[in-house]
Amino acid sequence: MRTEDPVVTEVPGGRGGGRVVARRVRGDADNGASPGRSERAASPGRGGGRVAVARDAASASILEWLARIGAGSAIEVAQACRVSPRVAQGRLAALQERGEVRSRRLLHGSPALHVLTRSGLRAAGRAELEPVVLSAGGFAHMLAVARVAVALEEAGHDVGGERELRAWERLEGRPLASAELGFWPDGGLALHRPDLVCWDGTRPIAVEVELTVKAPARLAAIVRGWARSRLIDGVVYYATPAVARALARAVRSEAAGEQVTVLALDRAGEVPPFDPRVPSQVARSVGPSTESQSKGTPWRPSIE
Question: Which pairing describes strands 9-12 and 19-22: parallel, antiparallel, or unpaired?
Answer without folding.
Answer: antiparallel
